[in-house]
Amino acid sequence: MRFCITILLTIFTSSFIFAQTYGYDKEYQSELRESGVEITDIQKRQVRRDIIKWAKFYLEKQYKYNEQVTLTHPVTKEKKTFKFDCSGFIAAVYWTSNIAVFEKQAVMDSGGVKIIYATLSKYKKVYNEALPNAGDIVMFDRTTSDTKKLTHAGIVIDVNKEDDTITYIHSSTSKGLILGYMNLKYPDMAKKDGKIINSYLRRGGGIKSLASQCFNSYGTILDIPEN
What we know:
This protein is of the alpha+beta class. The protein has helices spanning 26-34, 41-61, 86-96, 112-122, 211-214; strands spanning 4-10, 17-23, 68-72, 79-83, 126-127, 137-140, 152-159, 166-172, 176-182, 191-192, 195-196, 215-219.
């Protein structure tokens, strides 16, 4: 089955809504180009802005961890219920951003992060050697035990160009939706010059609990940043 992303983009340079179906596999992309359908850099930037907008919107709603929320799609007016654990939050944000990728995570009790990783990895959309773009997904290991992989995830909303600190939104088991921070340049530091650069992702504190120490990889629906 081909992996497709359905994106409805409002193009600000025109008065119409652009309906875009975008596939990761080269054969499907070739078919789109031949039919005259191709996503542009302007549209990609709009996708990222939409992801950030909806991630911040749900953060402001202060949804609790695992809270069941019925959402109304802003364009189609379809209703769908999401469970706001970490992967359900990602599914909700992408769904309301008109990206049909991660709906399965909306109803899963566990393993949602592994499905996100597997989906993006299949199409070579997982990376860890470059800074992410806002709108990308950050994935973590060992947040629930010392050995488990791909146990947590969040959505990147900002990358500080001065010190490379990444700001992301994620669903915390104790606090619900919150901001998190990660800086891989200083993996053993929670703060630098009085500023939080790495959040704690495990109870108990210590270096091994920092986001930088739990980091696994990033994933994107669009372009992987250059190293």
